[in-house]
Design brief:
It is a single chain. The chain is an alpha+beta fold and 318 residues long. It folds into two domains: 217 residues, Rossmann fold (3-Layer(aba) Sandwich); 82 residues, OB fold (Dihydrolipoamide Acetyltransferase, E2P), CATH 2.40.50. The chain is built from eight helices and 18 strands. It has a six-stranded mixed β-sheet with strand order 6-7-8-3-9-10, with helices on both faces. The longest helix is centred in the middle third of the chain and has 18 residues. The radius of gyration is 23 Å and the shape is globular. Bound molecules: adenosine-5'-triphosphate (ATP).
């Protein structure tokens, strides 16, 4: 029995297919992230898992039992699955403490524990309309945790947060998993959030699940051009009738000209921790990630493939 099993799930909105034949499973404490372009069906998938939309076909099973849709339950949703929506609402004119206490369905000793984990102690007396975006996010998360979920569905939890609030929320999620044993399934359109957090990634494209794998597998060996682009830029180098897929950091500048590809720098862009050079070569325009600054447009250079780079060959229609 899987902790969560999604089987051949399809969802339509007014007869338009939004999710088509999606199947996967998740085990307890496995960190699963769903990536995909806007409109690819990520939120709809979370809602179907949480019992908030009715599938047109297929089913979701949680701990061996079928998750019922909104028409099959008096109160939509599953009692052990919490859903932190992108557009969560906190009632106005209530203090944070009142909201949390009101929601608490657990024994009283849980409340201070969750307040501490979510780092909201200093906010308890404030009204909900007196909070910043990051603070509201942590209060909303605390509120969901007080329903004692076993599965927490997080829809773009970092999307409106700056760097320091993101880091803080990341710590909250880590602690919550460890201290409360909550399993998380996260939707994120930001490649860095999903690559660095997940143990398994799902890639959604126009309602279909097109790839599932470990983050490094999907980053280095994407199933198609769409999955490749979601996680950053890439090069395709001719290799014996096929194309070799290489990320810009898999290309190296070299002084040794044997076996190297000559080229001329077209443009150099600065990204803080690295530079990216765009280089015109006989194999096409290539991107090279390097620590070296802009050498000037037209500079002649030589490139080689990092000997440690993955060997991912794709067809010419990639
Ligand atoms: N209630 C609805 N009625 C009709 N169509 C909907 C409804 N909700 C979503 N859709 C459509 O379903 C598709 C998938 O939407 P969904 O919100 O699941 O995508 P998403 O991948 O989560 O997008 P985003 O990253 O922008 O949140 C979109 O084309 C959207 O317009």
């Amino acid at each position: 029995m899987n902790f969560l099993r999604v089987s051949a799930l399809s969802v339509n909105y007014r007869e338009v297919p939004i999710l088509q034949d999606v199947s996967f499973h998740q085990e307890p404490l496995e960190r699963l992230a769903i990536a995909g372009e806007t409109g690819s069906g990520k939120t709809t998938l979370l809602k179907a898992i949480g019992g908030l939309v009715t599938p047109a076909a297929g089913a979701v099973h949680f701990e061996g039992e079928k998750v019922l849709g909104p028409l099959e339950r008096l109160i939509p949703g599953h009692p052990h699955i919490a859903y932190l929506s992108q557009h969560f609402e906190l009632r106005n004119n209530y203090s944070v403490y009142d909201i949390l206490e009101y929601t608490n369905r657990l024994s009283d000793d849980w409340l201070p524990r969750i307040i501490e984990i979510c780092r909201v102690e200093h906010l308890l007396k404030r009204r909900t309309d007196q909070l910043s975006g990051g603070e509201r996010q942590r209060v909303a998360l605390a509120r969901q945790l007080l329903t004692k979920p076993r599965l927490l569905l997080l829809d773009e939890p970092f999307s409106n947060l700056d760097g320091s609030h993101r880091d803080q929320l990341r710590l909250v999620i880590d602690e919550m998993e460890a201290a409360l044993g909550v399993t998380c399934l996260m939707v994120s359109h930001d490649p860095y959030d999903s690559l660095s957090w997940a143990s398994q990634l799902l890639v959604m494209e126009r309602g279909y699940l097109v790839q599932r794998g470990r983050p490094a597998e999907i980053y280095e060996r994407p199933a198609n051009r769409y999955a490749a682009r979601l996680f950053g830029k890439f090069n395709l180098l001719p290799a014996g009738g096929r194309l070799r897929f290489l990320r810009p950091e898999h290309m190296q500048l070299t002084d040794q000209q044997d076996d190297a590809l000559p080229g001329r720098v077209v443009q150099a862009r600065y990204y803080g921790s690295f530079w990216e050079w765009e280089v015109e070569t006989t194999a096409g325009r290539l991107l090279v990630q390097t620590g070296k600054p802009d050498p000037g447009k037209g500079t002649g250079i030589h490139i080689r493939i990092d000997p440690q780079a993955p060997h991912h060959l794709v067809s010419s229609d990639f």
